[in-house]
Amino acid sequence: MQGLAVIQVEELKTLISEVVRAELTEHAPRLSEPFAEFPELLTRRQTAELLGVALATIDNWTKEGRLLKYRIGPVVRFQKSEVLAALTSLQRFQRYPHLQS
Predict the structure, then answer these.
(1) Apex 73 CA angle, 68 and 46, nearest 5
(2) Does residue 100 carry a pLDDT above 50?
(3) CATH number for region 41-99
(4) How does strand 41-42 pair with strand 70-72?
(5) How many angstroms separate the CA atoms of 14 and 20, rounded?
(6) In a 3-state reduction of DSSP, which class is residue 2?
(7) Strand order in 41-42's β-sheet?
(8) Sequence ranges of the domains in the chain
(9) Phi and psi (nearest 5°) for 31?
(10) Rounded CA gap, 94 and 101, in Å?
């Protein structure tokens, strides 16, 4: 059985900070890198999942020019950085429908 140890308050704060930081790093998603689990080139389904919309909505937004798609042979891909940028724009339009053209 171990005895009680006396430590300084600052040392205790440092130990607690280190443990909390280690746990957050292990279990929390990276806040600086949103949607890090998605690849850089997204399928239609991944794009719909990221934006929280149906596949038909992705098709409509592509036709309307709200999203840019890339053809690689027979497949269509969306660039994650552009989808995330479009997300901000799309949210603005949803909040302010009178701004839509």
Answers:
(1) 50
(2) no
(3) 1.10.1660.10
(4) unpaired
(5) 10
(6) coil
(7) 41-42, 75-79, 70-72
(8) 41-99
(9) -75, -30
(10) 12
Q: What share of the chain is helix, strand, coil (3-state, %, to 5)?
A: 55, 10, 35
What would the two tokens of residue 79 be?
């660039």
Burial 26-62 (b: 16+ CB within 10 A, else e): eeeeeeeeebeebeeebebebbbebbeeeeebbeebb
Q: How far is CA 9 from the centre of its chain?
A: 38
CA distance 19 to 25: 10
Q: E-assigned strands of the chain?
A: 41-42, 70-72, 75-79
Per-residue confidence at 101, pLDDT binned at 50, 70, 90?
Answer: very low
Interval 9-61: pLDDT, tens: 899 889 888 988 888 777 765 555 556 667 789 999 999 998 889 999 999 99
Kindly give, in sequence order, each residue whose CB lies less than 8 Å from that of residue 76, ignoring residues fewer than 6 positions away.
Answer: 43, 44, 69, 70
pTM over 0.70: no
